[in-house]
Design brief:
The protein has 429 residues and is of the alpha/beta class. The chain has helices at 5-17, 72-83, 93-105, 117-132, 158-161, 172-175, 186-196, 221-232, 253-256, 282-285, 304-316, 319-342, 368-371, 376-388, 409-428; strands spanning 39-43, 46-49, 54-57, 110-114, 136-140, 178-181, 200-206, 235-240, 262-265, 276-280, 348-352, 355-359, 391-392. It contains 15 helices and 13 strands. Bound molecules: 4'-deoxy-4'-aminopyridoxal-5'-phosphate (PMP). Belongs to the class-III pyridoxal-phosphate-dependent aminotransferase family. HemL subfamily.
Amino acid sequence: MTSDRISQELFTRAGAVVPGGVNSPVRAFRAVGGTPRFIASARGPYLTDADGNEYVDLICSWGPMILGHAHPAVVEAVQRAAALGTSYGAPTRGEVELAEEIVERTSVEQVRLVSSGTEATMSAIRLARGFTGRSKIVKFSGCYHGHSDGLLASAGSGVATFGLPDSPGVTGAATADTIVLGYNDLPAVEEAFAANGDEIACVITEACPANMGIVPPLDDFNLRLKAICAQYGALLIMDEVLTGFRVSRSGWYGIDGVAGDLVTFGKVMGGGLPAAAFGGRADIMAKLAPAGPVYQAGTLSGNPLATAAGLATLRGATDEVYARVGHAAETVAALATAALAKEGVPHRLQTAGNLFSIFFADGEVRDFAAAQRQDVKRYAAFFHAALEHGVHLPPSSYEAWFLSAAHDDAALERVAEALPHAARAAAEA
Ligand code: PMP
């Protein structure tokens, strides 16, 4: 690496005007220490920072960039849309086409576009409460569903990275109706329903959790959740913000086939612009304004640039793309585990389709408590050595590693060169 002087300067300037110097906490490198790289541009599998250093990108904007950065079809679609005006506050053809594409690929019958995953899950919860006339919701510790008040209890992602038990500013009233259970713990779900079944509006779960590292559902976990919800008249909300259109052309639904009554999407469907969605059974979605009484709205919902980027991305996400992403993910996972094994660093690879993460601990991770047993210090050393050797990993061991179809042999070769250095640093930490 040449230098990180300009990133350091920018981080200092940012710290004066932006809390913690970043606009989303995990970007700050708090868990791994050091200065976040300020990115100037990206192309294919590579990021270039403000100092001119190039990295193989294993974050991919935390999921959206499944085609790689600055994909020509996406860039062209956004440029064409921008030239026609950036926002109208009135409906467009692009919104219809994006909704049709989502309905065609997934289990949902109808879909409403929003601008972030947080909005999608927050709105799905409101709709579930409006539809059932009930107040309580069930979520699982270590699952992250965005930062709305009622869903921040025992959350994954940045909340896990920073070890926050919950967030100041979230009132007791906002979480009083949130029941938090251990992930993969079906007996706990059964008990919660036995005690509160007629008050529970919904269970929300990541279709396959990826925000405490990758912790796949045990064999019939999602199926049993669906059956329990049905038995008690509650709704199952499958959060596919991260997995949707990434782990298969539909999402985790394409792998385990369990349809949520409501499903949330984001990331890939926006192609790197702010677009997300929630959808589900038509009879439930019919309760949403203006068709029904449950209110939900957005000035920039279905924004023409975001829908153009999303459509171009989904249309580009062919079977061949998923095969390439799968191959790249398998290759990187194998390289990382081989390097760590060679250095005798305790680790555990967990995969979910083309997503994977590596826990710096021994033994299977089935829930958040197990995920928290890892050696964060070793990950920090691993992360920085990889960065020094031109590979930008997620700056937290609670996050998945993301590949794209643009991660070709040349990029994978660079990862192969960097990871042994990273593993050595982890061994010495
Ligand atoms: N749900 C899941 C499963 C997520 O992974 C995320 C973001 N990582 C969200 C919801 C929130 O999405 P956003 O950051 O777009 O608000």
